[in-house]
Amino acid sequence: MANPTTSGSVAREPQLLGQTVVVIGGSAGIGLETARLARREGADIVLTARDPKRLEQAAREVSARSSAAFDADDAAGVKRFFDELPAPIDHVLVAAYTRRSQGPMLESPSEEVAQGVGRRVSQVLEIARHAAPKMRAGGTLLLTGGSDRTFSREYGITPAAFSVLPPFTAALALELAPVRVNLIQAAFVDTALAASLFADGAAVEARRDELRATLPIRRVVGPTDIAALAVHLMTNTAITGATYDIDGGQRLID
Hints:
By secondary structure, the chain is α/β, with parallel strands linked by helices. It is built from ten helices and seven strands. The chain is 43% helix and 17% strand. The termini are far apart.
């Protein structure tokens, strides 16, 4: 008879067993994929999103402990959510889409451009302000952003809005310690949201083909790649104030 300790892989304890993961923007894409993986690793999941119907479906899929529908850019909604959320919690992933000013800067009102630069920062500050008192020491506030460094009239303020996040993350990590704060910066991630930014399906597929041909990894980055990094950052308690680019090497060739 085969020895069970040598004939196959040894079972391991789930990495997030007994922990609570809150996903802000968890009804699709990166947020939902991270919720799936965290649930498989034993975590209790709390999901939030703007769309109640999509949120309800996602919550059922991951057997979420609870869910709440609100706009992450609504400071009052964020406060109400965390006020009503039972403590303690361990990790908060901010994956909600943040609307940004598009197009040439000089063609946009100055107030709109300023909001485009600072909206993610103000959004995260409200989340941090209300989440931190309920978080266990060593838990993680995990931010997401873009790594787009392409400058053009059409992109306008977008690269600046992304570039403010790494120093913001580092400063917030000092303020929130011993809660940890880290940032995942991604380029094109193959999600429905990313596809919606293209003119049509043909344009999306053309972009995928281009990335498969040019990226050093020779494939397109998907939400499972981001989720794997997110869960690693939740479990590795030595990491804080750090920014991780996950773009398949795109920054090396642009």
